[in-house]
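Subject: for your reference before the review

Hello V.,

The reviewers asked for a structural picture of the protein, and I figured it would be easier to keep everything in one thread rather than splitting it across files. Below is the amino acid sequence we used in the manuscript, unchanged from the supplementary table.
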Amino acid sequence: MREPLYDPARALEDVALMPGLRPVRLHRIALPLFAVEIDSVVEAREPYELLDRFAGRAIAEARLDTVPDIAGFLGLDEAMVDRVLRFLGGIGHVVSRPDGTLALTDLGARSVRDGTRYVSKRDRQKLYFDGVLGEPLPAAYYGRRVVVWDTAQAAEQKWHRLMSHACAFRDDSLHHLASRPDRQDFNVPDELREVTSHSTGLAYLPCYAIRTQTDQGPSFLTYSAVAETRDEHLERICLHWPALTTTLDAGDTDDVRAEFEDWLAERDIDPAHLDWTTGETLRLTLPASRFAIRPAPGSPKGTFALTRVGSYVTPRNHVLQLWCDDEDLRREAALERALTRVTASRTIEATEAEAFLSRLSTQLATALTLDDLRVHAHKIRQGPLPF
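And here is what came back from the structure prediction:
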């Protein structure tokens, strides 16, 4: 089973770079969904074969309605025209009237008018509705990067807590969705007709629920594989889901330090280095010797890359920030991270780089400017910068 989401550290980093937000807990959850398999008729567009097109135009534009008349008009053998018309009848473009004459169907007339051959085909696909409000998921949740588990897959994995469905699936949900003028925004193309339900099952969407602290109090952010930034659609769902907070609270441990015992022991770090900040963030303060620009193979246990200064880890639920009291080290770490961001993007503008650098400066408690970044890039032979 492939990893359903990117590393939680990336989500925590995104939160940390938001002004005034401090991540304190991360919960790996699986949002309950309803998976509805639908049957439908879809009109596929195909290029016209030359004779098919001319036969259709003879009926539509020349008002001809018999095989001999059409064959004579086109200068073709009647047997060949009869085969063409039988084919057009088989795909729903031509019908025979009671008196034996021929006529175009609506599908055939539209095909002639638009210069493309429309063919009706049966199609089957899955649609997803959230299990909290019972609303359809937007089309972004059908992207290739997004993993949705069926019940067997959800039971097999161990990391994400399966949340219970908070509502029953409404029988009229599919009808309402198919009737919406914006249904293509929910992965139901306008070309689909005769949409009916084939089966309905349970499914789960893995995501991260991150609790944060602000100067105004706690807040709640959600991340999914749809994007590497906050998922505001899921956040709106969670606002109407009071049971989520209750469930997550029940799963939290009272002994926060105990969560990190094994993690610290594996890295030969004394738990005495743990402390709470005034912003209610658990911080691990290490000496500068614990950080290296690029830790070499065989480095002592508990050696971190320089760019990890100020970053967050979460072995379980509570979030831990890696820290160093050496301001020069934090300054260098911020410059390295900013330079990596700038050099990775060929289109970044000065205003965007300056905003990113400002957020890093706040996170790492150091003051930096674009001129500082330019000097750093020149110093390590990474310049000039693209702005």
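For the response letter, the relevant points are probably these. The chain has four domains: 8-40+123-251, 48-115, 256-325, 328-379. Residues 327-344 form the longest helix (18 residues).

Happy to draft the paragraph if you're swamped.

O.
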